[in-house]
């Protein structure tokens, strides 16, 4: 189905390997990988390392990003990508609101490109160290001349050279000629001279560049002066930022005078309502490019003259830690900021030698400063004609490009394609970032640049190597006959994974991973991996897999596939239950969608729909005619019926499914629940042990079947069998990760509560197999329930309170309304405050089904309540609870406990 979209290799030259160029290269690799397009990608830049550019080459950890980590991902649809990189590279406690070091961000860009190019096997990436000085087109190919006079040829070109160098036009000639003048603070080694001496320094400019240079040059025996027209440093970000506030009404089409008035009103209103002006400016960010583009040139020019300084100082803010450091410098008088412009500069001499501190700088306000160095921190040149890059001059002279509005940047179409002097788009040349500032104004921050980079990559490849139309022949299908948007080889591997998932056998994740390696644009394989990582504990980068699924399904996916990816997105990114209605509707529309059915029914692989209403199960049951008695669907029906208390029907359905497929884990699971809920502990234990011995060795969740067997042994009051089961089938290292948390911890806690385990339980060895992130920041309420049990068993009261605070602030209402109070109740258990614990647990029992999972799994909280009631001396209530349970099923353990209560 998916033959090579473009057999001839297409060559793309990206001029500039800083942040903008690296982001373009990353997205070209990603799209070419999904489409399996053969691509030669040339990154041309004099720098030794790609990704850093001038902005992120610094190794001074005091230089921080001025945007929080959650907004700095390379991928617009995977917001936490940078944050996950930070946690893997020495900053395990990084948070979404952290302002990371700029040098770390450069390393992240470089690593992400390396990863993207390694995964894109159809892409050849080359870094050519050199400066492009000229570009000429010969037919459909560009000839790029480098400074060493060599020529590189390409089919498409992306200009990503970043902001222009500062022009230094403000500096008097004597200063420009001085060895004590630093025209570019970020040039390699530029600050070495000032760093090596104790001379005072003058920074011309008071923006973010000046802030970073001041931090670098600070020393006890030096005064740093900073001057600019406004004498205003950037504002600081709030330590605890508020959500952006959008302006009321529409600002579109307003002249600058009215726009200015309405924006000021919006800021004042936000300050009155929220106590902070920042959310007002943040709320303008999505509108800025559109508002700027609509202004006539006269209004734009007026804004630059009158409003730019105020806008920049409030819009481009310092990280809180940076602002605090700058405040300390100013308080100690080591940094002095004032308004002014350089008027004259004079070198003073002592005898025949030039005094090392011999620059006398007079400002336009008459003040004279004696400094050893002057550093240009005024920022990039505004107009293209001021550029010192020969490529810029060559493009303008040849007519391949034209200046943007007011001469700022280049003229481009909405996709970033260069428009020549004939006002039409010329050859396939694009630009982004600072070069589009004249047309977009806000075009230099990573959130804007990454969007432009992704857009250019798509448009470029759509033009250079468009996807072929889908062939008329029949598409491959999955295990139940649903069509798949992939090729036969990837489909065959996907079917193996889906079969293993349907049977609850191990290896489903490996098969899905192989499917995406065969076809990186196969959306459903990515989506299945995301779900297995999210709920099944598979070692998957869940946000990355989900983003891959979303990108792939947009490019190539039918209605069913798009619907399923949407369901999985809601399941992973939304609060518990957010996607249940959509999932059930999807099943109604596509009753043979095996992955959707697996997600809907709370068996072993996934937690199921969180609202266990009869009509939800009935909807799944109504899909039975579409399956004509297939063992998979029959096994799911069996589990549904036992959850609703129809144990005879559930048992018959489970046995029917096992007759057709003895490896059906869902049917085994349903029958295990039937035996337990009906009190058939001896027969259920014999049958389950027999199945585990014959078929259970390859089960994905073998520990869960062992847990069911241990439940029978607990109910039979057989402490020796429980300890033996633990040792052989439930203790680490046999059980790891999420199964250790859900099954091993739960069984230890129940064994301790019921007296089946005397002495200290080996909880520490189990928790060593569970990631701390899973324990204290669980992604689902079902996992959170078991994290609470684990921390209680370990008497980790402080960690319980941390988990409680995490749940209380969670976007998921189940975390807030069930897990948070459960943490408080279980903390009371851990502290043996039984009269506090018992009523709190009792009140929570009706809400527990919202966390998902089965009734037998949630019963651990009822066991804890029973123990708390007995410990509090509330024997009548404990007696009533036991009687209710014995009315449902027999249990030697419960009979023993009932008799013991009668003697108290």
Automatic annotation (TrEMBL):
Q: Tell me the superkingdom of the source.
A: Bacteria
The segment(s) forming the FAD-dependent urate hydroxylase HpyO/Asp monooxygenase CreE-like FAD/NAD(P)-binding domain are: 13-163
- The name of this protein is FAD-dependent urate hydroxylase HpyO/Asp monooxygenase CreE-like FAD/NAD(P)-binding domain-containing protein
**Species name:** Streptomyces blastmyceticus
Q: Please name the taxonomic classification of the source.
A: Bacteria, Bacillati, Actinomycetota, Actinomycetes, Kitasatosporales
